[in-house]
Specification:
Isopropylmalate Dehydrogenase; 12 helices; 10-stranded mixed beta sheet; binds 3-isopropylmalic acid; binds magnesium ion; 2 domains; about 350 residues; two-stranded antiparallel ribbon; alpha/beta; about 40% helix
């Protein structure tokens, strides 16, 4: 089959890890007789430099018109001026909104061979297999009013945490659906003891829970959830939460896996065009050195094959290959080894289709 994939390598280590993920996809194409038509575009800081905008209308249109989008990372010190009128991160948010990808799936699994790389005690990591669903196109990131002004002679800044019922409902439904293919348990995370938006969140979670009696639903406050991720992560399975809480909790959860460099993500909406990206950032301190861990991006391509292109066997073969190389001791610097980005990808490619 033939698929059109837009590549947005972005900034920092983005181009290095996306480059290796593309080699993995080319290997899949060869072994399973598919053809991937890659088109590369600028997004983030590199796009500000070239076009004066972190995401141009043309690039967004190209993304919408493709089968799926693979993103590296955006941002860096060069574009960090708080007074700048555009920022690399704005491009990413506009892309998520423009693609309508409201559900960000961030799976966190701990490979047994990497247990020692986590700061948690090994016994706490037994059986950790969490799927965080982060709401991605609402909440504090997008609500209005937003901005700065001077009120009563004082400088003021405002962000708005806003959710509509339908925004909560659609991600909640997806959480229950995904839970049915797993341990049939949904943990809905909110701050219902303080926030009105969280009380609506909890109300809708309860409603959708009633429609799915075969799935156990629990409500956990976000502060408690952040503590339990460290004290007892194995009790969590599908975790569903609003945008900002999900941003924070997934960085915390990534520590369990030994390194952020290991973790993939998929952002899905009503359309089949998904956005796939590692959860790590642009890591400007190591950019250009060829030492970044490509696994988060490579596993993101596996999620792309599964969710957007419906190629389950191909997705599983990438995941198996990653599993095998980690078991065999292949390590980039972030997980205590010396392999370069390219060498790690080479190891994975050797195991594909075995
Ligand atoms: C993430 C990142 C982004 C976010 C930034 C880069 C805007 O932290 O994908 O988790 O906050 O969503
Ligand atoms: Mg984040």
């Amino acid at each position: 089959m033939n698929f059109k994939i837009t590549l947005l390598p972005g900034d920092g280590i983005g181009p290095e890890v996306v480059g290796e993920a593309v080699r993995v996809l080319e290997t899949i194409a060869g072994k399973y007789k598919h053809s991937f038509d890659f088109q590369e575009r600028l997004m983030g800081g590199c796009s500000i430099d070239k076009y004066g905008s972190s995401l141009t209308d043309e690039t967004l249109a190209d993304c919408v018109a493709s089968d799926s989008v693979l993103l590296g990372a955006v941002g860096g010190p060069k574009w960090d001026d708080p007074n700048a009128k555009d920022r690399p991160e704005r491009g990413l948010l506009a892309l998520r909104k423009g693609l309508g990808v409201f559900a960000n799936l961030r799976p966190v699994k701990v490979h047994p061979a990497l247990v020692d790389g986590s700061p948690l005690k090994p016994e706490k990591l037994q059986g950790v297999d969490i799927l965080v669903l982060r709401e991605l196109t609402g909440g504090l990131y997008f609500g209005f009013p937003k901005g700065r002004d001077v009120k009563d002679g004082r400088e003021r800044a405002v962000d708005t945490l806003e959710y509509y019922d339908y925004e909560i409902k659609r991600i909640m439904k997806l959480a229950f659906e995904l839970a049915k293919g797993r341990k049939k348990k949904v943990t809905s995370v909110d701050k219902a003891n303080v926030l009105e938006s969280s009380r609506l969140w909890r109300q809708i979670a309860t409603q959708v829970g009633k429609e799915n009696p075969d799935v156990e639903l629990e409500h956990v406050l976000v502060d408690t959830a952040s503590m339990r991720l460290i004290t007892g992560p194995a009790w969590m399975d599908v975790v569903v939460t609003e945008n900002m809480f999900g941003d924070i909790l997934t960085d915390e959860a990534s520590v369990l896996a030994g390194s952020m460099g290991m973790l993939p993500s998929a952002s899905l909406g009503e359309s089949t065009v998904g956005l796939y990206e590692p959860i790590h950032g642009s890591a400007p301190d190591i950019a250009g050195k060829g030492i970044a861990n490509p696994i988060g991006t490579i596993l993101s391509t596996a999620m792309m094959l599964r969710h957007s292109l419906k190629l389950e066997a191909e997705a599983a073969s990438i995941e198996k290959a990653v599993d095998a190389v980690i078991t065999a001791g292949a390590r980039t610097a972030d997980i205590g080894g010396k392999l370069s980005t390219r060498q790690m990808a080479d190891e994975i490619i050797k195991h594909i289709g075995e």
